[in-house]
Amino acid sequence: MGKKLFRTCTLATVMALVVLPGAAAAQTTGTIVIAKDAQPDSAQTFGFTGGLGSFTLDGMPGGTVPSQRSFSVAAGTYSVTESPTVGWGLSGISCADPSGGTTTSIQTATATIGLAAGETVTCTFTNSFGASPGTPPDLSKVQVGLVDTSQGLWHLIDSKGKAVQPFYYGDPGDVPVMGDWDCDGDDTPGLFRQSDAFAYLRQSNTQGIGDIRFFFGDPSDVPLAGDWNGDGCDTLSIYRPDEQRFYIINELGQDEGGLGAADFAFVFGDPGDKPVVGDWDGDGVDEVGLHRESTGFFYWRNTLNTGIAHGSIFFGDPDDRFVAGDWGRIDGRDTPAVFRPSSSIFFFRHTLTQGNADSELAFGKSPWLPVAGSFGVG
Questions:
Q1: CA 269, 270, 276: angle at the middle one, nearest 5?
Q2: How large is the C-alpha radius of gyration of the chain?
Q3: Which among 16, 14, 33, 123 is positioned nearest to 73, based on CA atoms?
Q4: pLDDT digit string, tens, across residues 268-286
Q5: What pLDDT is recorded for position 131?
Q6: How far apart are CA 59 and CA 46, in angstroms?
Q7: Which residues are paired to 200 by β-bridges?
Q8: Short-list 334, 330, 323, CA closest to 361
Q9: Any idea what DSSP says for residue 136?
């Protein structure tokens, strides 16, 4: 008969093979939290790449995109890099790491996180709004802003080119405009609700309801704000696209009533032209201009009546959104600027002459609509 073989088992071997009731497996994972701190708060989104994958964070807490994200991952080393965002400089990366295994580099916009089992490491990327790479405009007299019409959120720039705290005003779909409705020198929000042709004007750059409400025009009209008689007060007027006709009036409605006939009514432009208001000749009275997207030309008149353009220049690209103001030279004459949705950059021309942009400012998001005025903020 063959020999029987027996394997000797020690107590240690048995204990190694048996999991005692109530014993827990050693923890091998931890948590990484990546947070965004935008200064000031902004609905700008910021992109990240690296060992945690690609994701975005919003600079506005409580927005549709989260301002921080948590990742439950295996213990180990992870690099997280923030992608460049035009107009926003990375001013700091701070990480709370109980085990001290994390390093950061602003130069490379990267946090290298050493995650130990069972711990939570939180890294906050701080961005400050700043000038774009191009020459910044002189906004000491007239500033620009953007309105997120999907939620009625207004983002304004102060006279130093810095973003101020945004505020809510209006309903989704309202058409924004800025004007000095109370003659105090500050331009404040106005809204034209195309569904019912009602205007809602506010007399401060703060959240709230309309201080002045009245009916004016037809539902498809485009609102225009301007000082049409040089009295230092802006009034609301309209451009009717299907007629290529401007209707200018030198008073504001009140008490939710209507207005009478326009003081000026005249035809200017072609179908598809987009209206702009500015004081092109520096006489203290606002006039009208048009951007023709099909050709890229900007046309203006120096009087409020029918006629051909008093001047024209080639400026801007199709889909650019026009505003006007006295920037650059600050000589009392308004000149055009465009907000380019494809790059989220304002381009400013300092004279009514043909040429490339003289200055630029990166700000906002592509769907937002530009406004301009002397905001008195910041």
A1: 45
A2: 29
A3: 33
A4: 999 999 999 999 999 999 9
A5: 38
A6: 7
A7: 191, 213
A8: 323
A9: P
Q: What is the DSSP letter of 13?
A: H
Burial class (CB in 10 A: 0-12, 13-18, 19+), 11: exposed
- How far lies 251's CA from each of 10, 72, 262, 359, in Å? 101, 62, 9, 35
Identify residue 362 by its one-letter amino acid code: A
What percent of the chain is modeled with pLDDT above 90?
62
The C-alpha atoms of residue 211 and residue 195 are separated, in whole angstroms, by 20
346: Cβ contacts below 8 Å, ≥ 6 apart: 137, 144, 337, 338, 339, 340, 360, 361, 362, 363, 370
The mean pLDDT of 67-95, rounded to a whole number, is 89
Q: Which helix (H) or strand (E) holds 180?
A: none
Place of tokens 């964070």: 57
DSSP 2: P
* pLDDT tens, position by position, 89-115: 777 899 999 999 999 987 788 999 999
Q: Look at residues 89, 88, 144 and name the one whose alpha carbon lies nearest to residue 328.
A: 144
Q: Which residues of 268-282 are buried (b: 16+ CB within 10 A; e: fewer)?
A: bbeeebbbbbbbbbe
Whether 24 contacts 5, CB under 8 Å:
no
Greatest pairwise CA separation for the chain in angstroms: 123
DSSP class per residue in 48-65 = EEETT--EEEESSTTSSS
Cα gap 327→161, rounded to integer Å: 12
